[in-house]
Specification:
The structure holds 2 protein chains of 2 kinds. By secondary structure, chain A is mostly helical. Chain A contains 18 helices and 6 strands. Chain A has one domain: Cytochrome c oxidase-like, subunit I domain (Cytochrome C Oxidase, Chain A), CATH 1.20.210. Classes of the chains: A mainly alpha, B mainly alpha.
């Protein structure tokens, strides 16, 4: 590549997927424990430690490092300019890498079995919180670099539209900066003092609210690389232009706006908030269907153009004419299917009344595995299949193992999560280590858990095949031309209003929405008498 | 790369203003409308009486009379009964036959030998009432958690084992058929019983007093009691004259009910027949 960023990107995405492989093993083991089979090492302590490690990796480490690496890739390829500071980028990487080790070691030692949501009054080793904080701080270096790179490009290219892929990436950088605010405050001012023994009481309502601030938009931070690929990589892979560039920008902006002031829908059943702000945030949550539907429409339209260009005829003939052998096209379709099912589940979650029915049940875990593990991670694979060969300057001779891996993941996630949803409706609680299926009241659950476990092993097989696919690339034949080509719109915008080419207006709007949505719900903890919980430390050994 | 022709036309500032204007209008309208509905309209619909200020306060969680609002738990414990393993095993081991003997001597004059009260407006029917409910009330009369000039001395004469036996005896009797015709109860009373009023923090009566008995152990069966007895108890819970409900559950619920709702609820339970399980 032109700007010598290969190692930086490979380091980020490599560490990301190395941790994913480890977490996939833990995931399959956890499903086995839940099924009632007694696998080796199964005790409640090891189970919850494993869940903590799985969640910390899949929530904080894997997607963050992937998004950082992908962002650096987009910044140099879409803008065609070097990164503003390689030193800062590497500093961010090492902070995140050290943070990962610092977070995982206490979990393995059994001193931070607090799950990745770390709801107090549970508290674990201070190194765990410091580790998570380091990952966040490392990612802030990436945020700075993305904003900086776009500023340089706009200075050098006045009046020209920022390439869509970079516009999406910088949207994600701002989104992440806003997102991390809540959890950073919680870690710094509540969890770390408590874990060091400086405080004996902790305001659990405040902690849960701060975490909810982060917990929803973090999902959109994970999701945005997939959306960037939908708009800028999938149509190109299908051999067609993008139907509309402006639709992409609008979708990214709407995702920024309606991912942030909505986290209280995680607290519908919580007693520390009145109904008014829960209702407001539920309404704002509902608006997130707008960018989703815009995207499904625009990408389907782009795909239709591709299918017709390839000779597809009739109402649906263009679908069969699409180049399904290309991993990016296949993954986009599979991701849309998963996104559709996951979206329906999400509507149940955000509906105040229906939420009561599935709150704290397996339904919720099934939902976020379907959306994130399914719709999003399958796009991470597809993106990696596209950019890793470019980074290596090599090309896979045979894409059949790649397609097999994507299909395995798709089928695996469906077999895992669909019965899991059913279990939630049957009332199976989440965050429970073992179930006594000899009890006739819950005996009917077991067959569903077995099916779900089988899906988990399919996903594990798929994850390992992915690692194998990447490893074999290193011995693939070199290619001469390894430039990246992004999809260009049918009518590329020659000029855009500032609102669609920058973020000033939107950041002000996010600030307004956040003040309205969280001002009182957070302020009440300081205005009213509150009842903090006694700190409960899980690392009894120290 | 960049040329002058790419630069925006001179009216770019006007364009920015237009975006700012319409984005503010759209976001502002949406937020104001949502807040209006969530803060005023919906809570007001759930109020028993028209009280906009009370509705807004409750919607943001600062109701003055909310049990948590005082911040103090100065109240003495509502009851000394706990549903421990010992209590449960004791109830299982109770002897209804010896309970029957005690009932003939001490309880039958008011509650009837088969648990059918001689004056249901004053003395509740006990036939078919749950063992847990009768045991808990007897214990509360013994400890003074529930006050009654008549029941206190009678209950205090019994040992704990005897209270369990008596409870087992009444629980084993055939329940009273509901009395009278079924008067029409308004739809909102039926809804209160079946669904509750979530926004007022009132769970459905059925969630504890229903056939499935999924509620707390001591929750009694309500069908088959006289309406005036039930209304009287609701009023006593509302005024906190009766205070032996654990965690102030019934006091919290009852004081939110309007007098008409209390009357309606009492009529609903007092004069309806229980559904066949």
């Amino acid at each position: 590549m032109k700007y010598r960023v290969e190692n930086l990107i490979l380091a980020h995405i490599g560490v990301s997927f190395a941790t994913l492989a480890a977490a996939a093993v833990l995931g399959a083991w956890q499903m086995t424990v839940r099924s009632g089979i007694d696998p080796p090492f199964a005790t409640p302590e090891t189970y919850f430690a494993s869940v903590s490690a799985h969640g910390t990796i899949m929530g904080y480490v894997m997607p963050t490092l992937f998004t950082m690496g992908f962002g650096y890739f987009v910044a140099v390829t879409a803008l065609d300019q070097p990164l503003p500071s390689m030193r800062l980028a590497w500093a961010g990487f090492w902070l995140a890498a050290v943070g990962t080790v610092a977070a995982i070691v206490p979990i393995v030692m059994g001193k931070a079995t607090v799950l990745y949501t770390f709801y107090p009054p549970l508290t674990g080793s201070v190194f765990y919180y410091l580790g998570v904080l380091l990952i966040v701080v490392g990612s802030w270096a990436w945020v700075a670099l993305m904003i900086w790179a776009m500023a340089i490009w706009k200075r050098d290219n006045p009046g020209r539209p920022v390439p869509l892929a970079m516009f999406g990436t910088v949207t994600n950088a701002y989104l992440w900066l806003w997102t991390t605010g809540g959890v950073a405050v919680e870690i710094i001012f509540q969890l770390i003092p408590a874990s060091l023994g400086w405080t004996q009481m902790i305001d659990v309502g405040l902690a849960r609210t701060l975490f909810a601030w982060t917990l929803h938009p973090i999902v959109y931070f994970w999701l945005l690389p997939a959306y960037i690929a939908f708009y800028t990589m999938a149509p190109q892979a299908a051999g067609a232009p993008l139907y509309s560039d402006v639709m992409g920008r609008l979708s990214f902006i709407l995702l920024l706006l309606f991912s942030l002031p909505v986290g209280m829908h995680h607290l519908f059943m919580d007693p520390e908030h009145g109904t008014a702000f829960k209702f407001l945030q539920a309404m704002l949550t509902a608006l997130v269907v707008l960018p989703t539907l815009l995207t499904i429409f625009t990408i389907s339209a782009s795909m239709e153009i591709a299918g017709r260009l390839r000779g597809g005829k009739g109402l649906f003939g263009w679908i069969a004419a699409l180049p399904w052998d290309r991993p990016m096209v296949l993954a986009t379709c599979l991701s849309f299917v998963l996104l559709g099912f996951g979206g329906f589940g999400g509507v149940v979650n955000m509906a105040y009344g229906m939420n009561a029915m599935i709150h704290n049940t397996s339904w919720v875990t099934a939902h976020f595995h379907l959306i994130f593990g399914g719709a999003v991670v399958i796009m991470y694979y597809a993106i990696t299949y596209q950019i890793w060969p470019i980074l290596l300057g090599r090309e896979a001779a045979d894409v059949r193992p790649l397609r097999l891996q994507l299909w395995l993941w798709f089928i695996g996630i469906i077999i895992t999560t669909f019965p899991w949803h059913v279990l939630g409706l049957l009332g199976q609680p989440r965050r429970i280590a073992t179930f006594d299926y000899a009890n006739p009241a819950i005996a009917p659950w077991q067959p569903w858990v077995f099916v779900s476990m089988f899906g988990g092993y399919l996903m594990l097989a798929s994850a390992l095949l992915f690692v194998w696919n990447i490893a074999t690339l290193y011995r693939a034949r070199p290619v001469g031309d390894n430039r990246m080509h992004y999809a260009v719109a049918v009518y590329p915008p020659a000029r855009l209003p500032n609102a669609l080419n920058g973020f000033a207006l939107w950041n002000w709007l996010v600030l307004f929405l956040m003040v309205v949505a969280y001002g009182y719900p957070l302020g009440q903890f300081f205005l009213m008498d509150v009842y903090p919980g006694l700190v409960h430390r899980v690392d009894i050994g120290s | 790369m960049s040329t002058d022709q790419d630069k925006g036309p001179p009216d770019r500032r006007a364009e920015d203003r237009l975006w700012r204007f319409w984005v503010s209008i759209a976001a502002g309208t949406f937020v104001v409308a949502s807040l209006l509905v969530g803060l005023v309209v919906l809570p007001l619909r759930e109020e028993a009486r028209f009280d906009p200020w009370g509705a807004i306060c409750r919607a943001i969680g600062i109701r003055k009379d909310a049990p948590t609002a005082t911040g103090k738990s100065s109240d003495p414990p509502a009851s000394s009964v706990t549903w421990s393993e010992g209590t449960r095993l004791g109830l299982l081991a109770a002897n209804p036959a010896s309970g029957g003997t005690i009932v003939k001597d001490t309880c039958a004059a008011c509650h009837g030998e088969a648990g059918v009260s001689v004056d249901p407006q004053q003395f509740p029917n006990l036939a078919g009432q749950t063992q847990e409910a009768i045991f808990k009330q007897l214990r509360d009369f013994q400890t003074g958690a529930r006050t009654s000039d008549i029941m206190a001395p009678i209950a205090q004469a019994l040992t704990e084992a005897q209270t369990k036996d008596v409870a087992a005896y009444f629980a084993a009797q055939k329940p009273v058929e509901a009395v009278g015709s079924s008067p029409s109860v308004s739809a909102n009373i039926v809804e209160l019983a079946h669904i509750g009023a979530p926004a007022r923090g009132i769970p459905s009566c059925y969630s504890c007093h229903g056939q499935s008995r999924s509620g707390p152990e001591e929750a009694p069966v309500l069908f088959g009691q006289s309406a005036s007895y039930l209304e009287d108890q609701l009023k006593k819970f509302a005024s906190a004259e009766r205070r032996n409900d654990m965690f102030a559950r019934m006091r919290t619920i009852a004081k939110q009910l309007s007098p008409e709702e209390m009357h309606g609820m009492a009529m609903y339970y007092g004069n309806s027949r229980p559904a066949k399980p």
